[in-house]
Write a structure and sequence with these properties.
Shape: globular
Bound molecules: cytidine-5'-triphosphate
Number of helices: 5
């Protein structure tokens, strides 16, 4: 098996409002860390770009810590070329406060407004430059999971997308089991119920390796 160079992002990003407050989400990083650990176990060379997470750095994995979406974007851009695959397991904050206040904001009014600005879409950027690299996206949906996942896959030119369902009964955050749809090239769909993140990681990494070989077989015209 070829030793692939796998770039993985994990965890949430933090978008600072003032020295005390920030915008973030529920991501714990467990999916991305499971992928990084498994990829290392399989003999791949792994770089992990992690938002704030309280998980142990996987042994043998080069781990780069960032806080904001812009910092994650800068690190992905720096390392993308030197890798065969990018797995965007991070829950990147879509927006950041338009202005950071160096002084703590005072709460003496009854309402407050924070103007938000769109963050760069890292997966979409990668999809545009991918050449023969294998690009993987994740999504979390409360409704129309399949349709929305397909839409994101096309828009961001991902080769594979893994969709997680969020509901009262299924919270995909943290180390527990999860229900997923894995959509591969040609919209081939596989459904897994109550599957562990370690198992998702192994299935995904086998798919990445398969796809890498397909794209690099001499009959593949894409450059
Ligand atoms: N993503 C990214 N950069 C962003 C936002 C998301 O690279 N600024 C990546 C995530 O890492 C994930 C995929 O895009 O792999 C889908 O993220 P998701 O938040 O579900 O989708 P969005 O495109 O942000 O759409 P929405 O939040 O409207 O559902």
């Amino acid at each position: 098996m070829k030793r692939l160079r796998v770039l993985v992002t994990a965890g949430p990003t933090r978008e600072p409002i003032d020295p005390v407050r920030f915008i973030t989400n529920h991501s714990t990083g467990s999916m991305g860390y499971a992928i990084a650990r498994c990829a290392h176990r399989l003999g791949h060379q792994v770089t992990l770009i992690s938002g704030p997470a309280s998980l142990a750095e996987p042994a043998g994995v080069k781990t780069i810590r960032i806080e904001t979406a812009q910092e994650m974007y800068a690190e992905v851009k720096k390392h993308f070329l030197a890798h065969d695959s990018l797995v965007m397991a991070a829950a990147v904050s879509d927006f950041r406060p338009r202005q950071y206040s160096a002084k703590k904001l005072k709460t003496n009014s009854r309402t407050a407004f924070i103007q938000l600005k769109k963050n760069p879409d890292i997966l979409q950027w990668a999809g545009k430059q991918k050449t023969k690299k294998i690009i993987v996206g994740f999504c979390m949906e409360t409704e129309n999971m399949f349709a929305r996942a397909l839409e994101k896959m096309c828009l961001k030119q991902a080769d594979i997308i893994i969709a997680n369902k969020i509901s009262k009964f299924a919270m995909p955050f943290g180390p527990g089991r999860t229900d997923i749809l894995l959509i591969g090239p040609d919209s081939l769909v596989q459904q897994f119920r109550k599957i562990s993140k370690d198992k998702v990681a192994r299935i995904l990494l086998d798919k990445i390796a398969d796809l890498w070989y397909k794209k690099h077989s001499c009959r593949c015209k894409q450059r």
